[in-house]
């Protein structure tokens, strides 16, 4: 079943930083260069509509990764959770499309 929801940028960033929004283990690392990040942020500041995000809600045991910024705030290292990254209990929200944009927003704010 596919559902469409509207969420604020603040709600999305809170979910990513508080651990309720994850990356599936198959995601590529963060790759956007500074210029691309700047263009994305500028388009938001100018009020242009932003693209949607694709988030998978599942109860399945899926290997996952946290949203985590490295110390120089330029890339997303792939550090697994202490539990091996497997979602064992409860519903998980995994970003299938939008990692580059969410990570850019995390670095900006």
Question: Pairing-aware structural class of the strands and helices?
Answer: alpha+beta
Helix content: 25-40%
Strand content: 5-15%
Rounded mean pLDDT is: 80
From the N-terminal CA to the C-terminal CA, the straight-line distance is: 33 Å
Q: Could you list the spans in which at least 5 consecutive residues all have pLDDT below 50?
A: 73-82
Q: Give the ordered list of helices and strands.
A: HEHEEEH
Largest sheet: 2 strands, antiparallel
The total count of strands amounts to 4
Assembly status: single chain
| C-alpha Rg (nearest Å) | 14 Å
Output the number of helix runs: 3
Describe the structure.
By secondary structure, this protein is of the alpha+beta class. The chain contains three helices and four strands.
Task: Describe how the helices and strands are arranged.
Blueprint: H1 9-17, E1 23-24, H2 34-45, E2 54-58, E3 64-65, E4 92-97, H3 99-108
List keywords for this structure.
single chain; 3 helices; 109 residues; alpha+beta; two-stranded antiparallel ribbon; 14% strand; 4 strands; globular; two-stranded antiparallel sheet
